[in-house]
Specification:
The chain has 255 residues and is α/β, with parallel strands linked by helices. It contains 7 helices and 12 strands. The protein has helices at 56-66, 80-89, 106-115, 138-147, 198-201, 212-218, 239-253, and strands at residues 2-5, 23-28, 71-76, 95-100, 125-129, 132-135, 152-157, 165-168, 174-178, 187-194, 222-226, 232-235. It has an 8-stranded mixed sheet with strand order 1-4-3-2-5-10-7-11, with helices on both faces. A two-stranded antiparallel sheet has the order 6-12. The longest helix has 15 residues, at 239-253. It is globular. The protein starts with a strand and ends with a helix. This is NDP-sugar pyrophosphorylase family protein.
């Protein structure tokens, strides 16, 4: 099942960046059970960021358009009709096609299904999870991907640990208390650059992060792009994430 929504507004041109993709897939089918009651009547990407009046997917599409994307395929699932209705009525900065899985295909199968609707199957493409609110240069990530001749590139974030930590010395003395420090580990930020050949490597059914990604890693064809210093990134998983996102937005805008 598919739907096309075309905006009257023109998308930013990517002509000055011929190597960067101009098409993207947004995975927006999650149920968002940890975001209840916000997701009782809407899919996770339709939850509004407090203080903006715009749902998560609205922020994502605006960001993609600002990075030169002209066509996006939105993969819907839970309460798909709510998301489709909003897309049909919104003034969008790019062309959007929606697809709905008739039966669950898994993350990899769903990504492959959505990729079939990309307008240029012979060109590279971006993908992003539908619960990510971020801002950084996708063009820089695409250049990083091309320089390494990768088949797939993952954006890597360093999230903050949600608890305060205690610093001690070798004698067991407490030296300091540190509130929500950055994690020592990088995590998958849920934003990707894929070469055209990647879609054919995806499973028809199942999880690509357990099949395709490990295979590419063994072959040294999977790259990791650390988000630039100061880049904003937050995965919206819980009500606390919404509160933190609103607080961070207010700090940025001085409200």
């Amino acid at each position: 099942m598919t739907d096309d929504h075309r905006s009257d507004s023109s998308a930013p041109s990517a002509a000055a960046f011929p190597a960067a993709p101009t098409q993207a897939v947004v995975l927006a089918g999650g149920q968002g059970s940890r975001l209840r009651p916000y997701t009782d009547d809407r899919p996770k990407p339709m939850v509004e960021i407090p203080g903006t009046g715009v749902p998560i997917i609205g922020h994502q599409l605006a960001w993609l358009a600002s990075e030169g994307v002209t066509d996006a395929v939105v993969s819907c699932g839970h309460l798909a009709e709510v998301l489709q209705e909003w897309l049909a009525g919104a003034r969008l900065p790019l062309r959007v096609t929606t697809v709905v899985e008739e039966e669950p295909l898994g993350r990899g199968g769903g990504l492959k299904y959505a990729a079939r609707r990309l307008p240029h199957p012979d060109r590279p493409w971006y993908a992003t999870n539908g619960d990510v609110w971020t801002r950084f240069s996708l063009r820089e990530m695409a250049a990083f991907h091309a320089e390494r001749d990768a088949v797939a590139t993952l954006a890597l974030a360093r999230p903050r640990i949600p608890w305060g930590v205690v610093e001690t010395n070798e004698f067991g003395h407490v030296l300091d208390f540190i509130e929500a420090p950055p994690s020592p580990y990088l995590v998958n930020a849920g934003v990707y650059v894929f070469s055209a050949e990647f879609a054919a490597l995806l499973p028809d059914l199942g999880d690509h992060e357990r099949t395709t990604f490990p295979r590419l890693a063994r072959e040294r064809r999977l790259a990791g792009f650390p988000l630039p210093q100061g880049a904003y990134w937050r995965a919206i998983d819980t009500a606390k994430d919404l509160t933190e996102a609103a607080r961070e937005l207010a700090a940025q805008t001085g409200r």
